[in-house]
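INFO  loader      accepted 1 record
INFO  loader      residues=214
INFO  predictor   begin
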Amino acid sequence: MRPLTDRTPKPLLKAGGKALIEYHLQALAAAGFNEVVINLAHLGDQIQAKLGDGGRFGLNIRYSNEGERALETGGGIFKALPLLGDDRFLVVNGDVWCDYPFRLHGLARGDRAHLVLVDNPAHHRQGDFFLDAGRLSPTHGEKLTFSGIGYYTPSLFEDCRACAFALAPLLRRAAEFGKVSAEHYRGEWLDVGTPERLRALDARLRADAVTRPD
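INFO  predictor   done
INFO  writer      dumping tokens
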């Protein structure tokens, strides 16, 4: 996303007149969530200054600071575990836009995660994970893209240590033991990973706002 992210962290980039992360926070509050933990890394002080304690969203926001060198998808969650408690929790990437209906998801007994998968976008035709009858499969099924939205239990990270590491290997390992469920979400979803995709989303949201009836 450079040069946009040279001065602004990705979650604060705007589309439709609103920061990307604000769409998530409003959707989470509407779905009944009230406790949120936000991981901070590059220019993270801007995020904390912008969102504060979350009161204006009807949320209580706490922050887990990874430092200037991000801990990757898995390491960042691991560092935040002391703030997340002992129960399952929802993780949403700050650089995606979607209309996914967040919910207080109940994992099946023994499961360590539930992933939200989407159709493979043009820039990622190879997909990430196999979906087979509502389960993440290590070898077969429909190959889909991970949306960046997932429900996890702390037990998924029980053998991890404090360092930078990716989340995907943990999920694949748990899937080998049949401990990951998944769903195919067919609604609106966009990985806002380039300035071009951000501009396209901004134009679309602004056009929607103009044409939407009062």
